[in-house]
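FORM 7B: Structural annotation worksheet

SECTION A. Query
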Amino acid sequence: MVLSLSYRRPVYVSPSRQSLDSEKGGQAESVTSSTSSPYGIPDALSFDRIISNGTCPPVTIREFMDFLRYIEYDAENLQFYLWYRGYCERFAQLPESEQQLAKEWTPEQALAEKTSAEKEKLPKKIAPEAAAALKGTDFDPQARVVIPEAVHNPFNTPPRTPSATDRDSVAPSTVGWSEDGSTLPAGSLNHGQKTQTAFNEAGTLQPFTIQPFREEISRIIAIYIADGGARLLNLSAKEKSVLLKALSVTTHPSAFRDVVATVEWTLRHQAHPNFIRWTICNGNPPRQAFARGLGVGGIVAGIVYAIVITLSSANRGWRALAFLGFFIGISTLFAAWKGMCVVLHGMHHRHLRPWELFQDSETASAEYASGKGSFDSVGSGNSYEDEPWVAQYEKRNVIRKIFDREVWIKEPALRQIQDTIFVQALITAFVIGAIITAVFLAVPRGNYF
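SECTION B. Predicted structure
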């Protein structure tokens, strides 16, 4: 069996055509109808298995979150998706009287809002007679409005830049940057004001405050939807407008139907395959470079030995020993090209990631259980440049990074994938090494020394 994890451009399916589980029963339905994983990934490492905690390290949801945060810088999609799953469950557990306050947002309503948003972008048409009469005037629709670079307003007083003395006298809540990563001073714009601004920009009415989870929805909008949010999702203007109009009417989970479809599609067809390819690599980048160097060195040593023996008067059979250099070098280089170190694979070990080296396992488990850090759905931004492990890892020399701490790979399906790649490396090395060795065996002796 040949396992292929090479990248293939997925065929995009419009979220409007994807069916989500009716959020009834507290479960969110997948955007895909098939259960098998694409791109040659086994079902044991499928997206659903990882999300439902059905896998072992290093392919758990915690490693998935770390990969999105530290490698792909796209953790907000998974954070929002996990929040939505939990929100569906909590909404389904509400009493029937509270659920009636937030009606379901039907697909027909969503389609009507999409059509309205598209019509608003269309240019306004006027009669040809009116256009001819207005031509050359200030009301000419074809005329381009020229905005001067600077217009002096006599009633506008520009703000004065505070000096060091002024900053000391200002309250701490109005100085500096906000924790959510916006460029506004801390405390100047809370979640409620951000949400209200987002609703105003979308042209919607203010929502009913008696609906269940309205305060939580307000925080989610401020963090994931509103401009300047700490974990802003990559949504189009139309998707954002339709979502805000839906949330201004109801807090039912169905209001997020189209947005969740887009987020889940990205997680399933982009983030998840990239995560599986990344977990196959059992060594860190310095170790992979070191393995490639060993592979190239083995091949060069085999070629040099074969040339020397061929030019000498030694028996032809001695040339066959060059096959060992070719076999070891090619297999090591092939495995390193896939991100694997054959030495680590022989023990089914992997290097600890940089953020794992300086992290206490008990502390990490406690933070995961309490929902702190990356798993906090309404937490701060995903920036990690100020975390202590970044500076500590940079201080390590290259030799120490090559021989970093190792840990056993517990996931059987991942070990099976690595075994398959290792067998592929051995077969490739045997075939290519045998061909090169046969070429040297066919060359007559040089008898130069």
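SECTION C. Observations
The CA atoms of residues 228 and 367 lie 27 Å apart. The chain is about 50% helix and 0% strand.

SECTION D. Sign-off
Analyst initials: ____
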